[in-house]
């Protein structure tokens, strides 16, 4: 049974993604998904957290719209979950932020307590409060804020990620090494060696992986890195190999931002994991309604063979 645990729609991430949420679910059914995790971005809390496309025509209006949009998303996701239950298992979730611990930790935990929410993805899109995956200019600003070197940025990124992991313990850790997206080829090469430079970065990587393994979290193999020009999905090979050696579990995601990206590079992602010796992927299954109106969830292993068999991608 094919699935994704990470997806977005233009309906609830306007300017960032495309297409209506219902149309995305219908397409997911068409390509053979049996489970889809809906993970629209959580609301942000400050004008400084807005992206450039959100600054016009009015930053204050853009910020004020975020929380009501999240409420509307949960209502629509719940409706679609019921409507399409005979055809696809819809999980309702969100993707978290960690721009400032003081404001985002309580907000993430509050949003996660909503009875409709099954899980959340623990992600970092900022380091030192600066977006690292938007464009090269902002990535360079983040480098400058971390002492002027990519090594400093990578160390800061994995330190902030560790802070997030300890505070939130997300079931799914999103694009573990997103900081690589706009990094130089030389930086990626040094990280791959794990020695002869950047030892501090690699120590942080291993520390974070071990912590996720200790509390039972999953890393997603996120194929969006491939469509954005990286040679490998997130996480890169050396990190994925370390995770496999620890006995860590992978889930699988296209991180789609519209119909055109549903299932993008899934065959390449599956080949990548199988080359690492991964034989099963993990997802969630809603079992029964518990106290407080929240569904109880069971972890479900899916073999690579079963996953591939249900895909209907061209």
UniProtKB/TrEMBL annotation:
EC number: 3.1.3.15
Reaction(s) catalysed (UniProt annotation): L-histidinol phosphate + H2O = L-histidinol + phosphate
Enzyme class: hydrolase
Pathway: Amino-acid biosynthesis; L-histidine biosynthesis; L-histidine from 5-phospho-alpha-D-ribose 1-diphosphate: step 8/9
Residues of the PHP domain: 5-224
Keywords: Amino-acid biosynthesis, Histidine biosynthesis, Hydrolase
MF terms (GO), sorted A to Z: histidinol-phosphatase activity
CC per GO annotation: cytoplasm
UniProt xrefs under Pfam families: PHP
Domain of life: Eukaryota
Record-level GO BP terms: L-histidine biosynthetic process
Coiled coil: none
Entry similarity comment: Belongs to the PHP hydrolase family. HisK subfamily.
PANTHER family xref list: HISTIDINOL PHOSPHATASE-RELATED, HISTIDINOL-PHOSPHATASE
Protein name: Histidinol-phosphatase
Organism: Chaetomidium leptoderma
């Amino acid at each position: 049974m094919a699935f994704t645990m990470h997806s977005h729609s233009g309906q609830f991430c306007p300017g960032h993604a495309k297409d209506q949420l219902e149309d995305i679910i219908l397409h997911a059914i068409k390509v053979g998904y049996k489970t889809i995790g809906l993970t629209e971005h959580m609301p942000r809390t400050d004008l400084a957290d807005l992206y450039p496309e959100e600054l016009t025509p009015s930053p204050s209006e853009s910020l004020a719209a975020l929380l009501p949009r999240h409420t509307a998303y949960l209502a629509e996701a719940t409706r679609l979950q019921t409507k399409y239950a005979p055809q696809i298992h819809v999980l309702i979730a969100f993707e978290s932020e960690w721009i400032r611990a003081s404001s985002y930790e309580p907000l993430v935990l509050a949003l996660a307590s909503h009875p409709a929410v099954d899980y959340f993805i623990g992600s970092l899109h900022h380091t030192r409060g600066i977006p690292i995956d938007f464009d090269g200019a902002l990535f360079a600003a983040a480098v400058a804020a971390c002492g002027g070197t990519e090594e400093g940025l990578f160390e800061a990124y994995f330190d902030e990620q560790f802070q997030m992991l300890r505070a939130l313990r997300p079931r799914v850790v999103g694009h573990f090494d997103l900081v690589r997206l706009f990094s130089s080829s030389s930086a990626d090469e040094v990280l791959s060696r794990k020695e002869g430079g950047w030892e501090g970065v690699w120590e942080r990587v291993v520390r974070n992986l071990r912590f996720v393994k200790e509390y039972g979290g999953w890393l997603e193999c996120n194929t969006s890195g491939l469509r954005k020009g990286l040679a490998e999905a997130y996480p890169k090979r050396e990190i994925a190999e370390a995770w496999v050696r620890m006995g860590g579990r992978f889930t699988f995601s296209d991180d789609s931002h519209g119909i055109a990206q549903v299932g993008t590079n899934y065959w390449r992602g599956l080949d990548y994991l199988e080359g690492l010796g991964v034989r099963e992927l993990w997802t969630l299954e809603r079992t029964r309604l518990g106290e407080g109106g929240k569904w109880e969830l069971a972890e479900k292993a899916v073999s690579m063979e079963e996953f591939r068999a249900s895909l209907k991608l061209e």
